[in-house]
């Protein structure tokens, strides 16, 4: 009995530290369980963009062109092997159109949850590969790769939608 009490107290403490980091609750894309942010790499946890994201679920980088080169290089290292150099899809589904297996990937929060916590099979959690800040930069790049109808891209701001030009693939697709 005593052991049980100690154990549940320990679980409770664990849960509070994880959720203390985030005002928005983040969930695993497939299992729907709460994501534990304490697995995140130490570096890149407290940038302005990460703090803003954890408080609001919005990714400030999606409107900052200056982060695109870094987002691109992170994408080419961490994602393109499975999703294609231009996000056209390979082992993993395309990320450059408006079809999502998991519709929540049309939101910054949902896309972050999929990257951080993974989905099924080969789509493993990325918290050991990318810092939280880097995940937000990858999201900006994934949005930049879009070649679909801007009206179906809920994640675009009205200004981005009005000025939309589809991504011009600069890498070969093979
Ligand atoms: C080892 C291969 C692999 C790597 C690396 C990988 N993915 Fe995936 N990804 C997959 C597979 C396979 C799926 C399909 C899983 C599913 O349907 O549950 C997937 C699914 C996804 C989805 C869901 C798409 C949808 O239609 O809802 C997103 C978003 C995604 N990946 C983004 C990324 C990003 C961003 C990176 C890099 C940080 C990345 N993935 C790295 C293989 C990979």
Automatic annotation (TrEMBL):
Query: Which residue range or ranges hold the Cytochrome c domain?
Result: 66-146
Mainly resides where?
periplasm
Among InterPro entries, the record links this protein to: Cyt_c-like_dom (IPR009056), Cyt_c-like_dom_sf (IPR036909), Cyt_cL (IPR009153)
Quote the subcellular location field of this record: Periplasm
Signal peptide bounds? 1-22
One biological process term in Gene Ontology: methanol metabolic process
Q: Name the residues that bind heme c.
A: 79, 82-83
GO terms (molecular function) for this protein are:
electron transfer activity; heme binding; iron ion binding
Top-rank taxon, per record? Bacteria
Which purpose does this protein serve, as stated in its record? Electron acceptor for MDH. Acts in methanol oxidation.
From the Swiss-Prot or TrEMBL record, give the protein name: Cytochrome c-L
Gene source species: Jiella pacifica
